[in-house]
Amino acid sequence: MIFSSSLLENAVNEFAKLPGIGKKTALRLVLHLIRQDEAEVSHFSEVVAKMRSGIRFCRRCHNISDTELCNICSNTLRRQEMICVVENIRDVIAIESTQQFNGIYHVLGGIISPLDGIGPQDLAIDALIERVGKEETSEIIFALSPTIQGDTTIYYISKKLAALQPALPRSLKITTIARGISFGGELEYADEMTLAKSISNRIPVENFIHSGN
Predict the structure, then answer these.
(1) What is residue 178's predicted lDDT score, i.e. its pLDDT?
(2) Structure pTM?
C-alpha cells in the first residue's frame, strides 16, 4: 500500500494496530476522519485520550469503572451475596446484555493456561477468596468459557473455596453456567438467549466436575 502522505500513512499504521483491523479497514477509517469536521475529529481524539487516562478498575470486582466502586457493585438493588466469576470485562458486558443476572461480578483477568505462561498467581483468584471470606456471599457462579483452560480454572478455584467453607459462618453454593454454549466456544460470542438460559439453568460445580466435562 503506497501513500502520498506520511501523515496519512502514520495514521493508517496506528489504526491497523487495533485488534481485527487490517490495513484496508484502517485506511477506510482514516479517510472517514479526514472527511469529518476538524472539531469532530478533535472531540473524538479527546474522548479516547480522556478514557485512557481516566479509566479505573473497581477495587472490589476489577471491572472497568469511573470511580473506586463500579456502578454494578455500588447498586444496592442488585444481589450483593451472589458473585458471578468471569474471565474478562467483555464477559461482564455479554452477561449484562442478557438482563437475566441481578448479582455482582468478579473479573479474574484471564484463565489458567500453563502453555501461555498464565498461572493462578497471575489472576485475581486470591482477591476472590478474600472477598468470599469477608463478604456475605451465598453463591459463586462460574461463567467461564467452556474450554479446557476454563474448566481447569473452575476446578482450581472450587478447590480453594471448598477449603475455605469450614471457616465461613454460612453455607456457600458453588455453581457453573449450563453447557448451552458449545465446548471450545468463547462466552462473549454466545448469543444472548443461549447465554441467558445457561445462567438460569446453572448446575452445581461438584456435579460438573464429577461428570468429567
Answers:
(1) 73
(2) 0.79
